[in-house]
Backbone:
């Protein structure tokens, strides 16, 4: 990240921008930094001014306690000011929940695109999220960052042997370093259930994209986002998973985000 700015509560945010044209801000999900969406941003710069950033508590950005979702929405408001006072938003996974919330709170957003925001659609899914929240809160309160990361990976469906393998890998230390931000993404997701009423209040076009090789529940959750938004559209990228290829996603976003 080559630029810095100050959010409303004094938190320093690191960001990068490139390209020209209408602005689009890209928002990463859990256990990631702005670098995760940088390759996608690079594919949009011939048509758009793309801005990507390290969310608070990650990468080169600072952090200010106590955390609240409102502070992250204020971060997006400040970044929108940087690009001229209006922008389209794109968010992946829990980053999608954040951009949807920002639009629902009335930020000057012209369009919103999300990729596989993992909302639960039934009581069983909500129960699983509640258990995750309780266990995550306990692990972080006790300083067990590694266990917090393992809880998250387990929630994503990663097998136990793969989690144990990850613990022994060189990347584990970096994952533990940003483990406290798992609580931030958990807060952004609320109770985990699809916020139908919140989405119904949106007055901007919404594109919800899922991967054709992703689990059925995640595709259904993505479709539900589009169905709940008054101007929602659902798209499936065949052959893609939650780890979407930027080259497959960029053309779809370009078509949707174009004025």
Residues:
């Amino acid at each position: 990240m080559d630029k810095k700015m100050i959010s409303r509560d004094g938190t320093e945010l690191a960001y990068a921008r490139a390209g020209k044209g209408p602005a689009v801000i890209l928002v990463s999900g859990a256990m990631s930094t702005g670098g995760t969406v940088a390759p996608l941003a690079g594919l949009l710069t011939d048509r758009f001014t793309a801005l990507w950033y390290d969310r608070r508590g990650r990468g080169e950005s600072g952090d200010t306690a106590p955390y609240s979702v409102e502070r992250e929405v204020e971060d997006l408001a400040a970044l929108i000011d940087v690009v001229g006072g209006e922008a389209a938003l794109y968010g992946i996974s829990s980053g999608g929940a954040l951009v949807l919330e920002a639009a629902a709170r009335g930020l000057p957003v012209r369009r919103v695109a999300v990729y596989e925001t993992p909302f639960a659609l039934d009581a069983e899914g909500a129960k699983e999220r509640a258990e995750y929240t309780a266990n995550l809160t306990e692990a972080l309160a006790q300083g067990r960052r590694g266990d917090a990361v393992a809880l998250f990976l387990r929630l994503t469906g990663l097998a136990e042997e793969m989690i144990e393998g990850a613990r022994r890998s060189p990347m584990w230390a970096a994952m533990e370093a940003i483990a406290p931000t798992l609580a931030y993404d958990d807060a952004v997701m609320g109770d985990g259930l699809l916020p139908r009423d919140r989405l119904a209040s949106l007055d901007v076009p919404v594109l919800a994209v899922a991967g054709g090789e992703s689990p059925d529940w995640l595709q259904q959750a993505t479709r539900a986002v589009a169905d709940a938004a008054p101007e929602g559209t659902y798209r499936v990228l065949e052959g893609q998973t939650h780890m979407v290829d930027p080259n497959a996603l960029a053309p779809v976003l370009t078509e949707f985000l174009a004025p």
